[in-house]
Design brief:
The chain has about 525 residues and is mainly alpha-helical. The protein is about 50% helix and about 10% strand.
Length: about 525
């Protein structure tokens, strides 16, 4: 009897984190390295914003996929360029006058306008770590000021001095005339003012890190040792220097930095290293389709999102199509919540080898919790809250238990959280925007017909059977399409432009209660 060939292991999914992990695995195989270094960069000149979270989340998903693919160890370094000079005062901070007096100084050498930390840089670093920690990210935080001061970049700084002219030659063609006249890849710290100086350098002693430069304001000539925190790299050179000095293997960045990535890659090669594997993601836009800016504070903050929806929903939003520009404002929250719920439900039914294709597998680091499910969508809860004018969770739970007698906050913790979020979202967004309209003649006839059909149904009629009745009633009346009939139900009965599957809503809200809604709409819309 011939031996049976072994069954090949299922291939890993073609989701985008695994595609990125495959690229990194190829790099690791070529380099011979046994551990991978992922990096995310953060410029703390403004308060942390949701785009920063998105970059760390996405990088973490690639890292998890890399582990699953290769079994190799890795580390994620969240690097803050807190030694950068403050170029302008952010719009969304207090004590702007005080900050204006410190323009040009490293962020870690400027007082904290909030008064909670030793410096502005430390305040923003703490904010960054706080919201990354709230999502359970596994990372190591790195401060540019600390790395420079500790001499961790000294060897790389000396290499930049050795290759100074070659680096300048690569960068100058990308600059305007004024900046060309003052450009150097290394910026000395002024010994008297503490300002990060953008001046031309004369390299005096490479091994000692000694440079000479002229203060354009006073004409004074200075000699500065740029090692040990006496200077820092201009940011594009800084990016390349970190790749070289730390051995970064993977880093993603936004579409607005494509040219900077290219230039930093060229500098990294001049220093003798191979740039990391990169991934370009599209930018987030606010409600007016403007780029979200940490200095302007436009768009949603992490704190605002978490006021109205669970953190898993934010991760779901970040996972979807990272190379496509997406608007990021309050209206996207309900859809993101329901996408997460649908994917969690799907994940529980999937075999183990298919789960890594599911966004929920990435969101939960490969360990999908059993409690990650809800029998009701967020949109359904919002519509229920809207119709009953719910102010407390008990009101919603009364309807939920009638729909599902076994539902309790203890047994369905995700649903319990969604109830609380739905109430907050309803109070702040749904209730102020509710706008009912009167039905036209076609709609009045259809609503009266639906009222009569619902009267024939038992109180416990399943949602699918009610949905069938809705379709049949809509088809009996001269709507251009069934979508117009359901639009009528949402606008006339619920006071909004769209809503959930209406048969399920009726099953949840109650047949008699829905008939009362219809009767009121017909009565108030008459004449």
């Amino acid at each position: 009897m011939s031996a049976t060939a072994p069954t090949p292991a299922p291939s890993l999914p073609r989701s985008w984190p695994f595609e990125e992990a495959r690229k990194l695995a190829e790099r690791m195989a070529k380099s011979g390295k046994s551990a991978a270094l992922f990096q995310t960069g953060y410029g703390p000149s403004g308060l942390p914003h949701i785009g920063t979270f998105g970059e760390v989340a996405r990088t973490s998903w690639v890292r998890r996929a890399f582990t699953e693919l290769t079994g190799l160890p890795s580390k994620l370094l969240a690097f803050s360029d807190d030694m950068d000079g403050l170029r302008k005062v952010p719009d969304n901070v207090p004590n702007k006058e005080m900050l204006a007096a410190h323009l040009g100084k490293p962020l870690t050498r400027i007082p904290d306008p909030f008064g909670t930390h030793a410096s502005f840089g430390e305040h923003n670093n703490a904010r960054l770590q706080s919201f990354l920690d709230s999502f359970g990210f596994e990372y190591e935080f790195a401060s540019s000021s600390e790395y420079y001061a500790a001499g961790r970049f000294d060897d790389a700084m000396k290499e930049i001095l050795r290759k100074h002219d070659a680096i300048v030659g690569v960068v100058l063609p990308t600059l305007g005339p004024d900046r060309r006249a003052t450009y150097s890849p290394i910026l000395p710290i002024h010994p008297e003012t503490g300002i990060v100086m953008q001046v031309k350098l004369d390299v005096l002693d490479t091994e000692a890190g000694l440079v000479a430069w002229t203060d354009p304001a006073t004409g004074a000539r200075h000699e500065t040792c740029i090692l040990g925190g006496g200077g820092k790299c201009q940011w594009k050179a800084d990016w390349a220097m970190r790749w070289h000095a730390l051995g970064v293997d993977y880093e993603m960045s936004g579409k607005d930095l494509i040219d900077s990535v290219r230039l930093s890659g060229a500098i990294c090669r001049i220093l003798g290293s191979t740039p990391p594997v990169g991934f370009t993601y599209e930018l987030f836009l606010d409600e007016q389709a403007q780029k979200i800016s940490k200095s302007k504070g436009n768009g949603l903050s992490v704190e605002e999102w978490l006021r109205y929806a669970p953190p898993e929903s934010l991760s779901q939003y970040m996972y979807n199509q990272p190379q496509r520009a997406k608007r990021l404002y309050f209206d996207v929250i309900p859809r993101a919540v329901d996408e997460y719920i649908a994917n969690a439900l799907k994940a529980h039914a999937q075999p183990a080898h298919e789960k890594p294709a599911n966004p929920v597998w990435h969101i939960h680091g490969g360990r999908i919790p059993q409690e990650a499910h809800s029998p009701l969508s967020f949109a359904m809860l919002l519509n229920l809250a809207s119709v009953v004018n719910a102010e407390t969770p008990d009101i919603l739970w009364g309807f939920i238990r009638r729909y599902n007698a076994d539902a309790t906050p203890q047994d369905m913790p995700l649903l319990a959280r969604l109830v609380e979020y739905a109430l907050a979202y309803y109070r702040d967004f749904v209730r102020p925007a509710k706008q009912y309209r009167a039905p036209d003649d076609t709609e009045r006839a259809a609503l009266a017909d639906l009222h009569a059909e619902l009267a024939k149904l038992a109180p416990d009629t399943p949602a699918e059977d009610i949905q069938t009745v809705l379709y049949e009633v809509g088809k009996r009346h001269p709507f251009a399409e069934l979508r117009a009939w359901f639009g009528c139900l949402y606008q006339v009965l619920l006071g909004q432009q769209e809503g959930p599957r209406f048969g399920q809503f009726i099953a949840l809200y109650g047949i008699a209660e829905t008939m009362a809604l219809i009767a009121r709409a017909l009565r108030e819309g008459a004449g």
